[in-house]
Specification:
seven-stranded antiparallel β-sheet, 4 helices
């Protein structure tokens, strides 16, 4: 496996998020020290969550379903879309625009690849980084 893009390496080094991703479970994890809540049995949300000193998100929603796990990172910053290659590498698909960047089939060391999409909604809606972790069938 080649070196991970910066943002994905932050996720992989985050014990809580990496545990959720690798176990495909939103239960039986230590949530101490987090501001969180469950939207349902399949959806967990963290508020004001930091991956490090400079990468803080107003919300991270994790949705678990039968075929994949989706992690949505909500931020007011547009730096992730402006500097997409820095954060996610140069695997952009051809249909990227200034408001949407898509990356496909990134290997983060799991049995299945992940897909990444960054969408800048602008204004009060901000930017959403969507990461889909596929599960084995």
């Amino acid at each position: 496996m080649k070196e991970l893009p910066y943002f994905l390496s932050l996720i992989k080094s985050n014990v809580l998020l990496w545990t959720i991703i690798t176990t495909h479970s939103l239960t039986n994890i230590n949530l101490e020290g987090t501001t969180h809540g469950y939207w349902s049995n399949q959806c967990l949300e963290f508020r004001d969550y930091s991956l490090n000193k400079t990468e803080k998100f107003k919300s991270i929603r994790i949705t678990d379903n039968e075929s994949n796990m989706m992690l949505d990172f909500y931020t007011d910053s547009d730096k992730y879309i402006r500097n997409a290659n820095y954060y996610f590498g140069d695997a952009l698909k051809n249909q990227d625009t200034s408001a949407v960047k898509r990356f496909e089939k990134l290997d983060i060391g799991l049995d299945m690849p992940v897909d990444v999409e960054i969408t800048n909604y602008g204004g009060e809606y901000g930017t959403v980084i969507g990461i889909t972790v596929h599960k084995k069938k």
